[in-house]
TrEMBL record, chain A:
<dbReference type="InterPro" id="IPR006059">
    <property type="entry name" value="SBP"/>
</dbReference>
<protein>
    <submittedName>
        <fullName>Maltose-binding protein /trehalose-binding protein /sucrose-binding protein</fullName>
    </submittedName>
</protein>
<keyword id="KW-0732">Signal</keyword>
<feature type="signal peptide">
    <location>
        <begin position="1"/>
        <end position="21"/>
    </location>
</feature>
<dbReference type="Pfam" id="PF01547">
    <property type="entry name" value="SBP_bac_1"/>
</dbReference>
Automatic annotation (TrEMBL), chain B:
<comment type="similarity">
    <text>Belongs to the binding-protein-dependent transport system permease family.</text>
</comment>
<keyword id="KW-1003">Cell membrane</keyword>
<keyword id="KW-1133">Transmembrane helix</keyword>
<keyword id="KW-0472">Membrane</keyword>
<feature type="domain" description="ABC transmembrane type-1">
    <location>
        <begin position="211"/>
        <end position="404"/>
    </location>
</feature>
<keyword id="KW-0813">Transport</keyword>
<feature type="transmembrane region" description="Helical">
    <location>
        <begin position="12"/>
        <end position="35"/>
    </location>
</feature>
Automatic annotation (TrEMBL), chain C:
<dbReference type="GO" id="GO:0055085">
    <property type="term" value="P:transmembrane transport"/>
</dbReference>
<keyword id="KW-0472">Membrane</keyword>
<feature type="transmembrane region" description="Helical">
    <location>
        <begin position="298"/>
        <end position="317"/>
    </location>
</feature>
<keyword id="KW-1003">Cell membrane</keyword>
<keyword id="KW-0812">Transmembrane</keyword>
<feature type="transmembrane region" description="Helical">
    <location>
        <begin position="6"/>
        <end position="29"/>
    </location>
</feature>
<comment type="similarity">
    <text>Belongs to the binding-protein-dependent transport system permease family.</text>
</comment>
Length: 451, 418, 325
């Protein structure tokens, strides 16, 4: 499950300030480390005066402001009008509008699984020809991004339907450097050390973890990230892939082991803030707050790169909050696996102007413009990394690059009934008492029923 | 009736009290929301809304700038006031987030490094933290937690903090103070209320548009079904024709149709006939979905109207249309008014139908969609905003209810409900 | 055009169109098609009387068939097909469903909801209506109790989070427990009883509805019957249960039915409070899990929902029939 990635309050303030200063085009053309040439190329190639492109996606609030700025440069260059509306229930909306024939030109999918569903029903139009080769050549680990955007059409033929734009990093543990300093804790380098540290904190009278699975109707999704991360740390990447495709059944002992590994942290009353019972109902947006309480309610919080948006106001990155890589087992020799997710574009209503916009999103400038606003990681190899807005994004980019294994969020790839349904509720059942085996069996049964 | 007068008064006390109790029970949750809507997210997390009127004792971390550090007796000393330019009253303090109230004001809290002798004679050094009155000498215990003997004469100050009630502090450290040290204090925070949540909601771009859109959806979606239903209800209650019983049964049966069933087929239909996602579409949809209940309620009411009035009018030569508009409609006013309120509330608070039948661009967002999908999307954990949003969206229905209530009651007193 | 003006204009056209239809069609019927004059005088009046009900009913019937009957029939057919909609599987979806634990839980919970919520809301509504009847501040009390009606379900769920939350600094229940030194408890996780905590929310909302309708009915009871009972020496309880309640039985049925129907449509509360976890799933929220994914299953659930209220519906139809005689 992927949730919107938002910049820190500081970045938001920066953008707001910038917007006041420079209107809707905060970065002056020709200045900074941006690839302005690529924008000029788009301006030369297209004249879309009078054309309108509609776009819907899951980005709202601050994120909408950021994507609007990226789109403003396209409008400025080509004369087209792009209307982006963001909705928190985008997943539901896009299905409704696709079925009713009133889909926007471009949909921004937070989950490949959903795009695959729509492609199979014939609601998506394949990417313009040559996009697959372009992605292969221009994205880091390009062919894997092609694979993630390739789905079966209604006739069962594979086509490239999705082009990735933004990458999220999941394997992060957030902590308060001040709290760690005062208590004399070191950043754990291995999973063994992490478990030792967990016990150490309990021994010192503290609570190591804040875990919250609450998310309204999507309650449970943070646990799926945990299980996926632990799956990558206990099994070969190939096993992970089999799990995603259900070649390996969900109730396989290997999966059960990963779930129980999550239970090691989440189902121990001493390890989690509020006790195991609180895990299921604490809202994921509230749960990191424990890091910053005085006295600290917990010391560590495993969550994806977007979570700083929910830190209390005025939290300074680096001083009050920082992150470390969710470590791997030293004893398992599985390298440094990294779990990530991404947002992709799909064409739901083709037009020439839409193709032009897709071309724009292939340019480095379209990526850099958001990078510079913060809260954005990209797999585009042609961008100037100096454009990352802060050290934190840069460091996350490094984790991404140093990863010996990169895997996409499994629940995002599973059919939505599993990855956005049975897996979530199964995890809630698990933390509230059910055994890992029973939960896994129930999820597999659901999977069987849809095949 | 005198004999029951005493009983009556005691009964009236009982009923007054029980109504009061019920009202309080009903009101408590809403008051909680109202109070919370005036507090920011941090305050909501710190104390319950019921405690919001009272000052709370709260822990703070202060990082005083290391300016004017002096060297005294081999220690680096930083002095100042924890409140900076402001003022306040400190209740307790500490040097670690873990124990923000380790010492009382007027005390000195010091971390010593001291040698201990273990039972096997080995000498080791430990950290020992002690609180003692400022200016006094610390009194060391004889043994530490593990039972090792403490050699007090070897004690060296690692860092030491003294805080007075008015916030004056003195921080001493064995090492030079280059970075701002962390000082933890417990201080009373006065109750604080803010309008920031309402500003966020009402000040957000497009809220005025959303408000007008909501009215545009709600008013016709309330009046049209009532009009249509009133005619139909009259026909089903007072006109004779074949298939009447069957139609009544159909209406009652349709009450239970989950409207989720109809969303996608109807939207497809709208697209086919060219209505698409539009205001016309949503009026029709609300009309369709609201009709069974409207007909059901109105018919049940109209059936109970006195038969002789209607029949005598008909005998006098009035047509059904005249009977309906001149007699039945005025008599049914309370029922019409109550249904109008319910239909209004329902369409006002509706999210699902609006999402399906209105275009998903921000131009045609109604308030519920604006709040749910735009404002709350990135602030799901922000209860203050959620609370304010709930109150903003409830304000108009409440106003309508209180405004209509007069007519409602008057109508109810005049008419009679079977 | 400014949005305000546009809004007003659309309102005028919409509502005006409606009025124009009823007025115009009746006029045409009386004046043009079957004018009540010349030779055919009597026959024309009779003919007009035969046509007029359908004139009155037409818009309603049209909207009902289009928006409800057509989707229901279409959906029923759909529920007999498999997931992708290309294979006819008869009652396969229904059979499959009843063999699943998740569905059975949702079904039983739903039956519980359909029994408890209307009963409780009607009871409290009647209680308040009666108690406030002669109260000086009755209208204020009624307004306050009616207030939750104005709150959206999602807003209501939020309100109740401030009551149920696990954190004693947010949830009032746990604050009280904390005060008495008890450990906090998550009431939404208590097996079985958590359903009742969710029902409380809907009762809280719907009592206002029941109260408004029932208090109107109580006011409508002829004074003479009550006075006669008082003279006969009946005590207030006897008056209430023996005289008043039987007279407003019809209204109670209406209120009960309306709330029952609402119960079967509400999924927002469960959706927002627990997401269907902790065995609190009810059929409408269970249906949402399948919406847009497995339409065969989703529509089958809808028909099971309709099945649950069948007894109430039959009762109502009977009642309506007997009134007509």
């Amino acid at each position: 499950m992927m949730k919107p990635l938002l910049g820190t309050a500081a970045v938001a303030a920066l953008v707001a300030g910038g917007a006041h200063a420079a209107g809707h085009l905060p970065f002056n053309e020709g200045e900074g480390a941006f690839n302005w040439d690529s924008l000029a190329a788009i301006a030369d190639a297209y004249n879309l005066e009078g054309e309108t492109i509609t776009m819907t996606g899951p980005w709202t609030g601050v994120e909408k402001e950021k994507v609007d700025i990226v789109l403003n440069y396209f409008e400025e260059a080509t004369g087209a009008t792009v209307n982006y509306s963001g909705s928190d229930s985008f997943e539901q909306d896009i299905v409704i509008s696709a079925r009713s024939g009133s889909a926007p030109n471009i949909a921004v999918f937070p989950q490949p699984g959903l795009a695959a569903d729509l492609a199979k029903q014939g609601f998506l139009t394949p990417m313009p020809e040559g996009t697959a080769d372009w992605v292969k050549d221009n994205f880091a680990a390009g062919s894997s991004w092609v694979d993630l955007g390739t789905y079966a059409d209604p006739d069962g033929n594979d086509q490239l339907y999705g082009m990735f734009y933004r990458v999220d990093l999941k394997s992060l543990v957030w902590y308060s450097p001040t709290a760690f300093d005062e208590a004399g804790y070191d950043i754990p380098e291995t999973m063994e050390e992490l478990k030792e540290l967990t016990d150490q904190i309990v021994e010192d009278g503290g609570t190591p973890w804040c875990i919250g699975l609450g998310s309204g109707a999507a309650t449970g999704w943070p646990a799926t990230d945990w299980v996926e991360d632990l799956m990558l740390r206990t099994q070969e990447p190939a096993v992970y892939d089999q799990w995603v495709s259900n070649e390996m059944k969900f109730d396989d002992p290997k999966v059960v082991e990963a779930i129980e590994e999550f239970g090691y942290f989440a189902k121990n009353d001493a390890y989690v803030q509020g006790g195991a019972q609180a895990v299921a109902t604490t809202d994921f947006r509230d749960s990191p707050n424990g890091l910053f309480a005085i006295p600290p309610e917990c010391y560590m919080h495993r969550q994806a790169s977007f979570i700083p948006a929910f830190f209390p106001e005025g939290t300074a990155m680096g001083d009050d909050a920082d992150f470390f890589y969710f470590p791997a087992y030293e004893g398992k020799d599985l390298g440094k696996p990294v779990l990530g997710a991404g947002t992709l574009f799909g064409i739901t209503n083709p037009s020439d102007a839409t193709n032009a916009l897709i071309e724009y999103f292939k340019t480095p400038i379209a990526h850099e413009l958001w990078m510079a606003q913060g809260g954005f990681l990209t797999a585009h190899a042609g961008v100037n990394l100096d454009n990352y807005a802060d050290e934190s994004s840069k460091a996350q980019g490094e984790i991404l690059q140093n990863a010996s294994t990169f895997r996409f969020d499994a629940s995002d790839l599973m059919p939505s009934e599993i990855g956005a349904g049975a897996f979530w509720t199964g995890m809630v059942d698990y933390v509230t008492g059910a055994s890992a085996g029973d939960v896994a069996t129930a999820i597999q049964e659901r999977w069987d029923s849809i095949q | 009736m005198d004999n029951i007068a005493g009983q009556k008064s005691s009964l009236s006390i009982v009923s007054n009290l029980s109504v009061l109790l019920l009202v309080i029970l009903w009101l408590v949750p809403t008051v909680g929301l109202l109070v919370s809507s005036f507090r920011d997210r941090d305050q909501i997390g710190q104390s319950g809304w019921w405690a919001s009127m009272f000052p709370v004792e709260q822990a703070y971390r202060i990082n005083p700038e290391p300016e004017g550090v002096q060297q005294v007796d081999g220690l680096y000393v930083l002095e100042g006031n924890v409140f900076g330019e402001g003022s306040g009253s400190v209740a307790a303090f500490g040097i670690q987030a873990r124990e923000p109230s380790a010492a009382d004001v007027g005390q000195t809290y010091t971390r010593f490094v001291v040698d201990v002798t273990e039972p096997d004679g080995k000498v080791d050094d430990i950290k020992l933290e002690l609180a003692y009155p400022a200016g006094d000498a610390p009194v060391f215990p004889d043994v530490d937690e593990d039972g090792n003997k403490i050699m007090a004469e070897t004690a060296q100050i690692d860092r030491s903090l003294t805080v007075m009630g008015n916030g004056d502090f003195s921080y001493a450290s064995a090492k030079d103070i280059k970075r701002a040290p962390s000082v933890y204090i417990m201080a009373e925070t006065p109750p604080e209320f803010t309008l920031i949540n309402y500003e966020t909601i009402l000040g957000s771009a497009g809220m005025d548009r959303a408000f007008i859109n909501t009215l545009t959806v709600t008013i016709p979606a309330t009046i049209i079904p009532i009009l249509i239903a009133a005619f139909a209800a009259y026909a089903l209650a007072w006109m004779d024709f074949a298939g009447r019983g069957f139609l009544v049964a159909v209406v009652v049966g349709l009450l239970v149709v989950p409207l989720q069933l109809a969303l996608v087929p109807m939207l497809t239909f709208h697209n086919k006939v060219g209505i698409g996602q539009s205001f016309l579409g949503i009026w029709l949809a609300h009309t369709g979905f609201g009709l069974p209940l409207a007909i059901y309620l109105l018919r049940n009411y109209m059936v109970g109207l006195p038969r002789d009035i209607i029949e005598s009018a008909k005998v006098d030569g009035a047509t059904d249309f005249q009977v309906f508009t001149k007699i039945v409609l005025p008599l049914s006013f309370p029922a019409l008014a109550s249904f109008a309120i319910f239909q209004f509330l329902w369409t006002w608070n509706d999210l699902l139908v609006a999402k399906v039948f209105l275009p998903s661009n921000s131009e045609s967002w109604v308030m519920t969609v604006k709040i749910a999908d735009d404002l709350l999307g990135s602030r799901g954990g922000d209860w203050g905003i959620l609370a304010a949003a709930a109150f903003v969206s409830i304000a108009v229905p409440l106003f309508v209810f209180f405004a209509m209530q007069k007519y409602l009651v008057r109508g109810l007193l005049a008419g009679s409900v079977k | 055009m400014s949005p305000v003006l546009q809004g007003i204009l659309t309102i005028l056209i919409g509502v005006g169109g409606c009025i124009a239809y009823f007025y115009g069609s009746n006029l045409i019927l009386d004046k043009l098609i079957f004018p009540a004059r010349n030779d055919d005088h009597g026959r024309n009046i009779n003919r007009a009387t035969m046509v007029r009900p359908w004139l009155f009913l037409f818009p309603a019937l049209f909207a009902l068939s289009l928006y409800l009957i057509y989707p229901v029939i279409g959906s029923f057919i759909r529920s007999l097909y498999n997931r992708s909609g290309d294979t006819f599987i008869g009652l396969g979806n229904y059979v499959q469903m009843f063999s699943e634990d998740g569905f059975r839980t949702a079904f039983l919970n739903n039956v519980l909801w359909a029994l408890v919520v209307p009963a409780a809301a009607t009871f409290f509504g009647l209680l308040v209506a009666q108690l406030t009847d002669r109260l000086r501040w009755g209208n204020i009390a009624k307004s306050l109790i009616f207030m939750p009606m104005a709150i959206s379900f999602v807003g209501a769920s939020l309100i109740w989070k401030f009551v149920y939350a696990n954190d004693p600094d947010i949830g009032i229940i746990n604050a009280v427990r904390d005060y008495f030194g008890m450990a906090p408890i998550d009431v939404l996780q208590i097996p079985f009883w958590n359903n009742f905590f969710l029902m409380v929310i809907l009762v809280w909302i719907q009592t206002g509805f029941a109260m408004v309708i029932l208090s109107a009915a109580l006011r409508g009871i002829p004074e003479e019957t009550v006075e006669a009972a008082i003279i006969d020496g009946a005590n207030p309880f006897q008056i209430f249960f023996k005289i008043k309640v039987p007279q407003i039985k019809g209204t109670i049925v209406v209120v009960w039915t309306t709330i029952t129907i609402l119960v079967l449509k509400v999924f927002d509360i469960v959706y927002a409070m627990t997401g269907g976890n902790f065995a609190t799933e009810i059929l409408p929220s269970y249906m949402m899990d399948f919406m847009f994914r497995d339409d065969g299953r989703a529509t089958a659930v809808a028909f099971v929902i309709m099945l649950i209220v069948l007894p109430v519906m039959i009762w109502n139809i009977r009642q309506a029939r007997s009134e007509m005689r």
